[in-house]
Amino acid sequence: MRIRRYTGKDAQEAMLKVKMDLGSEAVILSTRKIKKKGIFGFLKKPLTEVLAAIDDDYGNKKNDKPAPSAKIRKTAGFYGQESTVDSVREENDRVSLLESKLKQMESMLNKIYTDVVKEKTQEQKEKREAHGAADTIRSEAVKVQQTVSQTGTDMYKSFERVLAESEIEPVIIDRMLEKIKQLVKNPGSINDLFGAARKILVNILGEPQTISFREDGKPTVVIFLGPTGVGKTTTLAKIAADYSLNHEKKIGFITADTYRIAAVEQLKTYAEILNIPISVIYTPEEIKEAILNYSDKDLILVDTAGRSHKNAEQFAELKMLVASAQADEVFLVLSCNLGRTACKEIISHYGFLKNYKLLFTKLDEAPVPGIILNIRYATGKRLSYTTAGQCVPDDIEVANVENIVKSILRTS
Fold first, then answer.
1. Which CATH class is domain 220-409?
2. Domain ranges of the chain
3. pLDDT tens for residues 249-302?
């Protein structure tokens, strides 16, 4: 006879183990509740233990009667039952071995369950961390985008401040910013704005033009106009020295500046140094005859008195002089240290001129050359020369657009 001990969470689980191991013909010897071993066993639900037995010859000699063995000694058991002592001991050993294996299996199953739970918990943790990382990335991306937007706004404000400090007219600043935003979609630094601004300013200022000589053999007549004190006489002398010494042109001087003290003497001094003839006129009608007297010259330079645009009578006389001269070239001479309001008034009063070129003096005395850009933009007239200093003939040059742009943008 085989005797086995089975444990389960309940009687049903224990009986299922009996049937799976011994079959449906097994005999239940006893059933009881037991606690798991160890300290923590008292805290858990008790298990059900079933002691079952089955005949060794079951299945082979189903219909045969059991024969007594010569080696087995029968003894009277308790409660009137008979048992074989050696068989019981052997079965107890087998039951203990089975219990050990079951415990090993249970331990293995618990470990597998623990690993599965741990793995699932880790996956959930990783998912939460991944979601958190994604949220962090999205949050950082939004912050970066906001920072870039704010940085771009700050760059434009800084650039606008630079232009304003260069005394550029607000309307020009607005047009420039509008154009720059079209050229530079996402500025990486303020240097991107300056690069685009340089191109725009160079385009606005344009290519300078100097004196255009006649090609019919007649002398080219050039008249210089402008308010008082801008340096017309000195500028005229610088241009005369350049064409006389460097280009070997025959030059004649005409001056109508008889109102300013020592103005005639100043030009006569330059004429004597450069060996250039000079004529002095007192009325607009005299200029035609003076021009005819210099028919053998290549270039005739006409100096005029500075007239206040607020003095209507004097300004009317200037208009008559310009009409009588019928000059081939007209240069409007302006000082770089004039204020924006004064420049606007001067440009407005000299609006009677059909065509002229812009000549700027005292570039060295101006903190910023914004006036050059403002007047060029307002009039649409070509730049010609700029002067910086009193030295004749050195302190004059064809307007250097690149240097003017660098000064406006405060760049080196």
1. alpha beta
2. 2-65+72-112, 151-205, 220-409
3. 999 999 988 777 677 888 899 999 999 999 999 999 999 999 999 999 999 999
